[in-house]
Description:
Chain B: This is Sarcosine oxidase subunit delta. Helices cover 21% and strands 28% of the residues of chain A.
Amino acid sequence: MAQHFRLPAGGRVDRSKPVSFTFNGSKIEGYRGDTLASALLANGVHFVGRSFKYHRPRGIISHGSDEPSALLSVSRGPGRTDPNNRASVVELREGLVTTSQNHWPSLNFDVGAVNDLFSPVFVAGFYYKTFMWPRSFWDKVYEPFIRAAAGLGVAPTEPDADRYANRHAHCDVLVVGMGPTGLAAALAASETGKRVIAVDEQSEPGGSLLHASDETIDGKPAADWLKETLAQLDARENVILLPRTTVFGYYNHNHVAMTERVTDHVIDPKGAPRERLWQVRAGHVVIAAGSLERPLVFADNDRPGVLLAESVRAFVNRYGVLPGRKIVFATSGASAYQAAIDAKAAGADVTVSDLRLEAGCGPELAKARAAGVEVLTAHTVIGTVGHKRVKGLIVAPVMGSGTIGPRRTLECDCVGMSGGWTPTVHLFSQSRGKLAYDEALDAFIPGTSAQAETTVGAARGDYNLAACLASGYAAGSKAAGGSAEWRFETSATLVGFQPVRVMPTDANPAKVRAFIDFQNDVTAKDIKLAVREGFQSIEHVKRYTTTGMATDQGKTSNMNALGVVAGQLDKPLPSVGTTTFRPPYTPTTFGALVGPARDALFDPIRTTPIHDWAVEHGAKFEPVSLWRRAWYFPKPGEDMHAAVARECKAVRDGVGVFDGSTLGKIEVVGPDAAEFMNRMYVNPWLKLEPGRCRYGLMLKEDGYILDDGVVARVAPDRFHVTTTTGGAARVLNHMEDYLQTEWPDLDVFLTSITEEWAVIAVQGPKARETIEPLVSDIDLSPEAFPHMAMREGRICGAPTRLFRVSFTGELGFEINVPADYGRAVWEAIYDSGKKFGITPYGTETMHVLRAEKGYIIVGQETDGTVTPDDVGLAGMIAKAKVDFVGKRSLGRPDLVASGRKQLVGLFADDPSLVLEEGAQIVADPNQPIPMKMLGHVTSSYDSPNVGRSIALAVVADGRARMGQTLFVTTPGGFARASVVDPVFFDAKGERINA
Amino acid sequence: MLLIDCPCCGLRPETEFRCGGQAHVARPATPADVTDKDWSEYLFVRENPRGVHAERWIHQHGCGRWFNALRDTVSDRFVETYPMGGDPKSTTTETRL
Amino acid sequence: MRRFSYRSLISEALNAHQGWQRQWRAPDPKPSYDVVIVGGGGHGLATAYYLASQHGITNVAVIEKGWIGGGNTGRNTTIIRSNYLYDESAGIYEHALKLWEGLSQELNYNVMFSQRGVLMLAHNVHDVQSFKRHVYANRLNGIDNEWLSTEECKAFCPPINISQDIRYPVMGGALQRRAGTARHDAVAWGYARGADSRGVDIIQNCEVKGIRRDASGAAVGVETTRGYIGAKRIGVVAAGNTSVVMQMAGVRMPLESYPLQALVSEPVKPCFPCVVMSNAVHAYLSQSDKGELVIGAGTDQYVSYSQQGGLHITNHTLDAICEMFPQFTRMKMLRSWGGVVDVTPDRSPIIGKTPVENLFVNCGWGTGGFKATPGSGHVFAHTLATGEPHEINAPFTLDRFRTGRLIDEAAAAAVAH
């Protein structure tokens, strides 16, 4: 296909750089500087897609990001395919593979187009009224059919080959939009030396100046002024210019979010990200986002070949493309005349049909006629001729009485329509500024600002070039703290339009299909139907008809929809309200919002100093909060069960070594440390001697268990607190909160020392003998160093806080050494223990061993609704203390009521059966559903040391049920189990004191 | 994302902070003397106003200090921040934004 | 009320749809009603509907300060399920689910209840234990919920990545097949139409400014922007604004109102068959009938009525979605929005009496109220009609915060050790 509609000269495309791509398999050529839309039009392709609901043929409507119809799937190679790209936004790049969407089997012949025949039935909201009979058909027939018919393009299925970046920035002035207004604002703001960031969503800055024709600024052609201004800004070190960057969100406290399209337009990204998310905290935001042209609403206004008038002008002037040879401009305002004049100058046969009376027109009329353009004033548009491409525009005069005169068909292959302009107030509204309705402009414009923000230029309804430049300049200066002004001399701008909702017609309005929302196929009569059915708030209308809900979010349709609602209700437009604009301004790639936050950068993975040793020794790991913990250490050929059984035996028979470094650790220091501990924990602390440890139990203020852990008093004013692995931050936060806000009088410091200390647990009858050769300065004999003692000294020459504690029920030590010595000390212990068969064990074995002893794990036996008494730890509570956090709540009626669930042991009747953790417990398995549940299994293992399966459970009144038979759910039914004491091994606790 | 004026560190982004809910909810000095009803009020009942709200924040990933703030819950604008234990300069009624 | 049927739809198609009447009237408020319901969201409208249909009480007004269904009803991600752990929660959500199953026919309004299944993924040993606890509890309560192995998860929802070397590998999941989604707006409209046809007055753009009480302290009516309206009983169903409304009667509530955000992608052809939730990764995802991926984010951390939250919350949610479904990074966010959710200390609702005579409240649904809409309306209608709670909402008292008899589902899913 040759570029038959490309003009021989003019525009900003580079005719020396041809670029080829495919559309639905056909190879097409455009030029560097083209968008997909301009390249397709240069080759005479208008029909590029099917609409959402009726599958009607649709073409390119706009040259900008407001495009509602021309949505294509675009592929840049493997892992680089995505749907729903606006043809007017995609920059042409060699090798793009583009395809049209929402049709089967082909764009030209689409079975789904049958929907259009049923359009009399498929009106707004019809699906709420039907598809209900028979009931079973909804899930099986109707919904699958609706789902398959809906949706536009096809979601990507392969992993993304691109990467995304994220950047935070600060500036004094952020200028949104680099059209004439924004450029003037950036110029003025940067004069003062303040940091300025100016952004524009298009591939090059300039906005409307990019398709200027005879406009001049300060005596120069607009294009020259643009070039000079950009050079001037570019030379300023305090200015960052970001083209291809869309401000999509305006959040609290001038937090502005934008995406920069970095590499979609280049063939080889060379590792650069596809898009970059910018999060800017701006001192002041100048919104110069311009305005959006309104389509006219008339029958079959959706035919391919019907464009916005200004877009026709942009394709002609900026891209050197004539969208048609015979173009009719249908308008109710002045700006379309300039498009007509430019199209005429480019060689098109041009006619203007203007709804306005001759007397209502301005200088544009004479200018157009002088240029040889035929103008029909006081003419309405009745409809179009043509199906897959517009072939003619049916117009008719509107008589003085309002009656419609005889129809006449203007043959054409392109229509440029203009129903006036709508300021782009999206960002202003997102910033929570209040919109005000301006009757003269027939538009909502920014009213009161809610943040440090100024909206100027066309975005507040100023369409005159000189005024835009002047107001932009003044706003930019003011935003930077200055007060400079500049008077720009420009050519005259053709402005002004007559608001129109639906073009007058001689046809029955109840049957005319005049589209308001092109993508979602919402017509004026759909909106009227919604209003008749009582949907009168614009939000109800939107939701009932789906107008404004498509991927363009109603950029071209909102004002027309509002106008029709107001007209139907016979109310002034502002009383219908406007919808709230929310982020994003245009659809924003998930990847850009995610940035590099994937895998370990999504959530960091924490590992201990001994982690690499475990990896080298074949450990399997389990995720525990952010940590990866060694789960078990299988030998070749061992499965988890075999490995854990071996580890469990080894600890009880000899010695095992376990990496406890993930335990949370907090140092509580200060003259009031003991008093603080006394208030935070249920236990008594004042009399605990330095060098002694105590198991601490901590409650939330509501009386339920928050955390537990062994605490050592290192010195009179110093406690070494341990917490659960997952609870470390929670406990420190909890302590800080009380310390700073309830008891600021206490002289205490809290420091997280989790990362400071590696913790190596050496457990088993041979534990002492294993570490003895390594420890200096500490007498390890049972008399000098009993259970629950702590000594400071040295191990392998490294300083240590050596705890004699046990979570296994065996003689045991927990050796704290500075993290950097962790691996060396671990290896020394491992070597020293080899003669005793020292066995490294993981979290699973740790769980089994402690369950054999009936020790609870907070978060497993407890779940945030469990009191100390529930788990048999009421004895920990210091009776003499008047108060501690949670004490008062323990006295609440439900916490002292009978029937609470209590920790017990369970023996399944079948000793080989390991009950499922989470299984529910009932007294009678034959009772009717819903059954009365007594509790659930919290921990359950095969215990090699007990020689059978064991389980811990919480059961209503459990301690009173010792010996009872209960029934525990299994995947296939119930298992019988008896209630037993939760201590399964060494009930007398002799081994721990060895 | 809010921009919060930490009394120690100045303006910092919200992600450095944690909100601790309503401020000035004093823990009863002798909880044992408080009725169940009053205790449940202390634990659970909150002002939750539509308007200016006195609340607690901690600069978790900064100085680590708790402080108080007055913030309008409709506009999300801060009226002021002030140290823990102190009183605001503005009153909640006259500062409604 | 004109019934919707194929016949009526076709006859209207031939008539250019000129004959459809308003789906609900726009009446002026009467001087007084038997029951005034404050709040025209799904729960309030359902309450009115069941008052009329189940209890024959039709002299009822629903007072809405904006437009009906404009609050959280129209802002949620439409997930419906009943596989809760505790008997109390399971009771009310299952009651709701059973009503959902016949709701389109009951209302003669297609609410598009789609039982496509909700799959909750387990990513660590603790999740597995917790989900199995739910599965077994549900089984004994007669609620469907089944445990799926990792491979079965993949078979049920092919887009799931079951590779074991990702940041949060899938270790299985709990599936409730009867769970699913519905068309949120239609629920409000369907109940409104049904209630209106039975005589209920739905009064929009009418804000309650005060609650009038008599000498004995009992509530007797509401002051509104459209004048005083007397009421024998008042039911406050105002979601995020409950604290504000209850304060008008001098009742302080154990509630805090937080922003909750959600977002949708651009519409695409069917690519995601069910609802997937992951607590560990903090994400949930489904695809609407229109083709949009519907994604729920978390709450912001501070009290706010702004219906707007921070971008970092949205970003974190998308981080999670793309961590689980990396093929979606090239999808685009189309719309994001916020609601105001009222959260109780145990994150379970309060449905019942208040310390003020004749004043009743239904609130505290937090982030999960949509799924309960029919059940909530049904039992609250019973409460308003009889003055006493239905057995299903009896546990959800305001008094439980005094006794400590909390219903804390989230605590029961406590994070790992």
